[in-house]
Design brief:
Layout (H helix, E strand, L loop, with lengths): L2 H4 L2 H10 L4 H19 L2 E4 L1 H16 L11 E5 L26 H8 L3 E6 L33 H8 L5 E5 L6 H7 L2 E4 L20 E5 L2 H11 L29 E5 L9 H16 L3 E5 L7 H16 L18 H12 L2 H14 L5 H21 L5 E5 L15 H6 L5 H5 L4 E9 L2 E9 L4 H15 L10
Parallel strand pairs: 2-3, 2-4, 7-8, 7-9
Antiparallel strand pairs: 1-3, 4-6, 5-6, 5-10, 9-11, 10-11
The structure holds glutamine (GLN).
């Protein structure tokens, strides 16, 4: 790996600020690295080399004129292909949207561009962000740079794999039930799912609207903090966007862990977790104790209903959101169909993969007149109970800590035959979405030579506290190891 693409976003940004490197050099290094490695990894669905070089030249001109915009100015990044990019194909990983050119930028896209970030391209994902392994991509699976026979996690698999492979310095993903944290854990990078409403969903292809939340991934906590600082904040175009002021995430980063009360949920350590994962997580908790934090046992008794409630709510909302792909307004249309109904049916049959179809059927069923109360409404009530568990825990602790996933990265194909076992990969991440809380994954060790992430869940809008806690561990453990991926 060339030295430049080894840098973290923080290091790249510092070198830009010092004039030690140009945005054009960083951009060319990333493009070369993508060229050399992405045939194997499959992190990118589209590379926008021309636009990236133009944006880099503009960033270099600003810097030369002493008008650098901030820490992201001139830094090459990638976006999960769920974020709308004006005039740049946005597929949501679905054949349904193949070649779709959005007429506008989403808010995350626009804010990163306004901060001077250089967009290298669009990153692979599970179709409509439905999945935990990236194998539901309508285009190609993405592979884990640590072991190409394994999944990078999903649904933001491309976003994590691209970072681990040294192809860019920061990425954005989305997390509906774990899709930022799981791939971050599997690929050994930092991934943060903010509080629901912290980052605008405007211009993000919708999956389950009450759960979806965009968030950053980076090689270091600093990187995630810088990205979050650029995209967070109220957006009048998203009615669920919060008006709370945005914290100074970078400023708060080095506060340490002394006095931090870490809640350890009993239910997250009751078996079913790979011993190597559990050992890495427990070792991280011991590091925190050495740093002056205290561990408090807490209980999240309704966690056990998390998967069931999530898969009702997520499928119900998905069935409604995906109704728009009817062959009329967006994307693929069966031109040879006879009549309107056949055109609807054929367009959906051809454009949508097995997982979205499965979810549309489940969700339509759960929302149907006779079943709404029994399923969707009941799942929403469970959601309240899950949130109350966390509220009670946060009376005794500042963050909740545990594993991100029960295992390290599993093999491609290992779970594709059985959707239920795939759904179980999200058992520890899903409750945080149901409760609308912020959660992150920070590298904490390895199991069988594969990265393991520690999950930290925080109080509403305490992203700064989570990042600070994660940084304390990162400082102690040193830079997270990187995979030896040959070009
Ligand atoms: N794996 C979960 C699902 O398939 C979560 C996906 C996500 O967070 N987007 O729904």
């Amino acid at each position: 790996m060339s030295a430049l693409t080894d840098l973290s976003l923080r290091e790249a940004s510092e070198r830009l600020a010092a004039g030690a490197v140009s945005s054009r050099e960083l951009t060319d290094a990333c493009l070369a690295r993508i060229e050399a490695t992405d045939g194997k990894v499959g992190a990118f669905l589209a590379v926008t080399a021309g636009g990236a070089r133009r944006a880099a030249a503009e960033a270099d001109a600003r810097r030369a004129a002493g008008k650098r915009l901030g820490p992201l100015d001139g830094v090459p990044i990638g976006l999960k292909d769920l974020f709308l990019t004006k005039g740049v194909a946005t597929t949501a990983g679905s054949r349904m949207l193949e070649g779709y050119l959005p007429p506008y930028d989403g808010t995350v896209t626009a804010r990163l561009a306004a901060a001077g970030a250089v967009l290298l391209g669009k990153l692979n994902l599970d179709e409509f962000a439905m999945g935990s392994s990236n194998e539901n991509s309508g285009y190609r699976p993405c592979r884990n740079p640590w072991d190409l026979s394994r999944t990078p996690g999903g649904s933001s698999g491309g976003s994590a794999a691209a970072l681990a492979a040294g192809q860019c310095f920061g990425t954005m993903g989305t997390d509906t039930g774990g899709s930022i944290r799981l791939p971050a854990s599997f690929c050994g990078v930092v991934g943060l799912k903010p509080t629901y409403g912290r980052v605008s969903r405007f211009g993000v292809v919708a999956f389950a609207s009450s759960l979806d939340q965009p968030g950053p991934l980076g090689r270091e906590t600093w990187d995630a903090a810088a990205l979050l600082g650029a995209v967070a904040g109220h957006d009048p175009k998203d009615q669920t966007s919060s008006t709370r002021p945005v914290a100074d995430y970078l400023g708060a980063l080095e506060g340490g862990a002394r006095g931090l009360r870490i809640g350890v949920p009993r239910e997250w350590f009751q078996g079913g977790v790979d011993p190597g994962v559990e050992a890495a997580v427990r070792a991280a908790l011991a590091v925190y104790q050495r740093l002056g934090a205290t561990l408090v046992e807490v209980s999240l008794p309704h966690s056990k209903y998390g998967i069931a409630a999530y898969y009702l709510i997520a499928t119900a909302e998905a069935s409604s959101n995906l109704a728009r792909y009817d062959g009329v307004r967006f994307g693929l249309r069966a031109m040879d169909a006879k009549g309107l109904k056949e055109m609807y049916a054929e367009s959906r049959e051809r454009g949508l993969g097995a997982e979205p179809k499965r979810r549309i059927m489940l969700g339509t069923y759960a929302l149907s007149a006779g079943y709404y109360d029994a399923y969707y409404l009941r799942a929403q009530k469970v959601r309240t109970l899950v949130r109350r568990d966390f509220d009670a825990a946060f009376e005794r602790c500042d963050v909740v800590a545990g594993p991100v996933a029960p295992t390290p990265a599993f093999r491609l194909g290992e779970k594709t035959g059985d959707p239920l076992t795939m759904y179980l990969a999200d058992i520890f991440t899903i409750t945080c979405n149901l409760a609308a809380l912020p959660g992150l994954s920070v590298p904490c060790g390895q199991a069988a030579g594969l990265p393991v992430g520690l999950q930290l869940v925080g109080r509403p809008f305490d992203e700064a506290g989570l990042l600070r806690a994660a940084r304390a561990l990162e400082r102690e453990l040193g830079p997270a190891p990187r995979p030896a991926l040959e070009a």
